[in-house]
Amino acid sequence: MIEILKALLFGIVEGITEWLPISSTGHMILLNEFIKLNVSDDFKDMFLVVIQLGAILAVVILFWKKIFPFHLGEIRNKKKNVIDKPIFQMWFKIVIACVPAAIVGVLWDDVLDRLFYNFLSVSIALIVFGIGFIVIERWNKNRDLKIRDLSEITYQTAALIGIFQLIAAVFPGTSRSGATIVGALLLGVTRTVAAEFTFFMAIPVMLGASLVKLIKLEQVPSSMELLILLVGMITAFGVSLLVIKLLMDYVKKHDFQVFGWYRIGLGAILIGYYLIAM
């Protein structure tokens, strides 16, 4: 029962931090430092990634009409226009945006984890991108943001957003959503569109990352470990449904500066803890 409660807590943290631009990795590192799952190291490495599948499912359900390109009702009625071309085009753009991070993740995932998955690297990434959010949002107040709809994101813009996602793939703590949102804001994308595009990019990225971790899993999980994973994923799914709705309502009226200040504070806490623990 204790391990189930721990999995529940990890699911809550994942569901909250995966979609807010505050770094789920930073929070998971901090949480894992104080709450240890009684599982093998091999399983734990997989768990911290595959738990994201629950969060992905929340995006799929909430944005189904915006991401599914086939009109099944039209197929049953034998009408011609059964494919939504703008949605198909959006997915091509997402694929282009995800290619750089996918290549780096497949080839150098273990190396990058070994080099940068630590308190100091994550803390620095939290602070640097926290400052970035504050600076960019203040700069954007005097700009006329031109991209106000998903269909207005060009292939070139998608590729540039993908470069920012690559930064997150290399440096844990940057926050995948944080990096892509910062990149999108710099390129003149409105907050709402930047958030939606980031959510949709997460689907192939997280599926791919989870697949890699499952393939690399050396031991077959025990029944208890599988239960822990299931509880974490279900919890992350339920919390993500609420957090995504709240975030989309929030960005319609507010900017991201509060998340920047939060990141700076969390980064400072991690550095302080790192220095004390040395």
Key phrases:
278 residues; mainly alpha
Overall description:
The longest helix has 32 residues, at 85-116. The protein has helices spanning 2-17, 24-34, 41-50, 52-62, 64-67, 72-76, 85-116, 119-140, 155-170, 176-186, 191-216, 223-251, 257-277. It has one domain. The two termini are 33 Å apart. With 278 residues, it is mostly helical. The model has no long low-confidence stretch (mean pLDDT 89). Helix 4 crosses helix 11 and helix 8 (119-140) runs antiparallel to helix 13 (257-277).
Brief sketch in words of this structure:
This protein has 278 residues and is an all-alpha fold. Helix content is 77%, strand content 0%.
How are the secondary structure elements laid out?
Elements: H1 2-17, H2 24-34, H3 41-50, H4 52-62, H5 64-67, H6 72-76, H7 85-116, H8 119-140, H9 155-170, H10 176-186, H11 191-216, H12 223-251, H13 257-277
Helix pairs in contact: 1-2, 1-12, 2-8, 3-11, 4-11, 4-12, 7-9, 7-11, 8-10, 8-13, 9-10, 10-11
Structural class: mainly alpha
Number of strand elements: 0
Taking all Cα atoms into account, the compactness measure Rg is 19 Å
Largest beta-sheet characterization: none
Mean pLDDT equals 89
Shape: globular
Beta fraction: under 5%
Give the helix level as a range of percent. Answer: over 70%
Enumerate the spans where pLDDT stays under 50 for 5 or more consecutive residues: none
Summed up, the helix count is 13
The structural domain count equals 1
Name the helix and strand elements from N-terminus to C-terminus, one letter apiece: HHHHHHHHHHHHH
Measure the end-to-end span.
33 Å
